[in-house]
Amino acid sequence: MEHKWKTIIEPFKIKTVEPLGITTREERLKVIETAHYNLFNIKAEKVLIDLLTDSGTGAMSAAQWGGIMVGDESYAGARSYYNFENEIKSLTGFDEVIPVHQGRAAEKILFGVIGGKGKCIISNSHFDTTRANVEFSGAEAMDFPVKEAMDFDRPAPFKGNADVAAMEKFVKEKGAKNIPLCVMTVTNNSLGGQPVSMGNLKAVQALCQKYGIPLFLDCARFAENAYFIKIREKGYAQCPVREIAQAMFELADGAWMSSKKDALVNMGGFLAMNNKDWSAKARQMLILTEGFSTYGGLAGRDLEAIAIGLREVLDENYLQYRIRSAAYLGEGLLKHGVPIINPPGGHGVYVNARKFLPHIQPRNFPAQALACALYLEGGIRGVEIGTLMFGKRDKNGVYQAAPMELVRLAMPRRVYTQSHIDYVIEVFGYLAKNKKTIKGLDVVEAAPILPHFTAKLRPAK
Ligand code: F0G
Q1: How far apart are alpha carbons 28 and 420 in whole angstroms?
Q2: CATH code of the domain occupying 25-54+315-459
Q3: What is the pLDDT of residue 6?
Q4: I need a labelling partner for 309 at 20 to 30 A (CA). Which of 160, 227, 315, 441 fits?
Q5: Contact 229, 198 (CB under 8 A)
Q6: How confident is the model at residue 135 (pLDDT cuts 50, 70, 90)?
Q7: What's the CA gap between 380 and 109, in Å, rounded?
């Protein structure tokens, strides 16, 4: 956008609208009790501003809806598949492109091929489904975030980076032959949607090359990451974001993507790589569980929309607006004294509930309590990333404090306007003034895998 104006506007106009779920506090109290204080159990129509996730919740463009209408639904060899494959090849440079219905399907297939007992996957940080799929295969998932990632208050430009020295120390101890893969998650979702610098990607690649370990990107938010490199890393200001993204992929041997994020679609994903042995095995698994290799659990129209979305997301006016939106929310919260992971991430803001609600013990889930209060007072839905999500218990069944206690406010792409965000900031202002009234929770029931999705809770006694 033109530089003489400082207001960054939404670079789109709205063609289709949907009403928001407007409820009263009294109604919401009933809703949350019935949902057992788990926001995954709430009917979406009872949510006013839904910041549960940025995954599959974005608005598609008129061009994407147009693509939906011309999608080729042939079982094998559909034109839409070739559009999808060509787009991914030209963006990533990888030869083997495998469509999947979403990110975790790629993870299940990939770790089914390369995981297993005795193996270890190393990463800046595994996203929770990635970790779950690594562990389900029998392998171990090890995270090596940089130290500043855990210093939530102090801003740093690339808190998503990996600690390369710690990674190398581990590789030497474990033995490279037991490490079939290194994964860089861009941006680093679990630790605040923080970007990884090109410098760090290069250093990780050099390490991987030295020890013969393949490097993959978990590239759900690759465009946001590339834009951060453009605006924060020396030497990239003049470089088109698409070229930065291509340079990121060039450092890797493969990637998988939950296309529900930066491909601007509601469903889809891919697994891409150069290794023909791995891709042949992956396609066998694909055919077994997802579908034939030219649709992989998706409709032809979905493939078409992904191909278009992967181009649209690299529009720099879009990315400027996108990154600015999260920053605007973060600044608003900081003004009310609400502690966040600073700076805000690419796809949202992570509130530090441990610091915000010091009167609630970890075993009473401060982040979940805050997420519930946010819903009760404002009809806003966020997601807990803390003691409930990590779900580690001691032998007496008491929950062990997770390393962090966060509420993520993830922003759907192209969905909410600035006044929606002003409203969220206002509700937080109220919560900040009345935080002593927010009480902790107890778990009544929880599953062993990914417990946060289904757990039942109640107000602590
Ligand atoms: N990797 C990352 C970095 C993710 O953020 C996600 C999903 C996945 C993999 C799995 O993809 O959902 O398509 O199966 N993240 C969503 C979120 C669920 O809310 O952050 P999926």
Answers
A1: 19
A2: 3.90.1150.10
A3: 87
A4: 160
A5: yes
A6: very high
A7: 35
Q: Given this model, what pLDDT does residue 93 score? A: 98
For the cut 90, the answer to whether the pLDDT of residue 391 exceeds it is: no
Structure tokens at 149: 């990632």
Same CATH fold assignment for domains 25-54+315-459 and 62-312: no
Domain residue extents for the chain: 25-54+315-459, 62-312
Number of Cβ within a 10 Å radius of residue 264: 24
- As a whole number, the mean pLDDT across the chain is 96
Architecture of domain 62-312: 3-Layer(aba) Sandwich (3.40)
Pick the atom of ligand 1 nearest to 106's CA: 14
Is 218 tagged catalytic?
Answer: yes
Q: Is 452 a catalytic residue?
A: yes
User: How far away, in angstroms, is 104 Cα from ligand 1 center?
Assistant: 7
Dist CA 228 CA 162 (whole Å): 16
Q: 156-170, 243-257, 385-399: lowest mean pLDDT where?
A: 385-399
- pLDDT given for residue 16 in this prediction: 95
What is the arithmetic mean of pLDDT over 333-345?
98
Say if ligand 1 is within 6 A of residue 389 CB: no
CA of 15 to the centre of ligand 1 (A): 28
Catalytic residue among 101, 159, 261, 347: 261
435-460 pLDDT per residue, tens: 999 999 999 998 877 788 889 999 99
Distance between first and last Cα of the chain:
54
Element (H or E) spanning 80, and its range?
A: helix 79-92
8 Å CB contact between 186 and 225: yes
pLDDT mean over 281-288: 97
Q: How confident is the model at residue 1 (pLDDT cuts 50, 70, 90)?
A: low
Based on the residue annotation, tell me whether 216 is a catalytic residue of this protein.
no
Distance CA 237, CA 444 (A): 52
Query: How remote is the CA of residue 127 from the centroid of ligand 1, in Å?
Result: 7
Asked whether the predicted pLDDT for residue 367 surpasses 80, the reply is yes
**Residue of 55, 130, 349 best suited for mutating to test ligand 1, as the one with most atoms within 8 Å of CB:** 55
Is the beta carbon of 103 within 6 A of some atom in ligand 1? Answer: yes
Question: At residue 117, does pLDDT exceed 70?
Answer: yes
Q: Which H or E run contains 218?
A: strand 215-218
Write a three-state SS string for 91-130.
Answer: HHCCCEEEEECCHHHHHHHHHHHHCCCCCEEEECCCCHHH
Task: Note the pLDDT of residue 247.
Answer: 98
Q: How far apart are CA 32 and CA 53, in angstroms?
A: 18
Q: Is 127 considered catalytic here? A: yes
- Whole-angstrom distance, CA of residue 329 vs CA of residue 419: 11
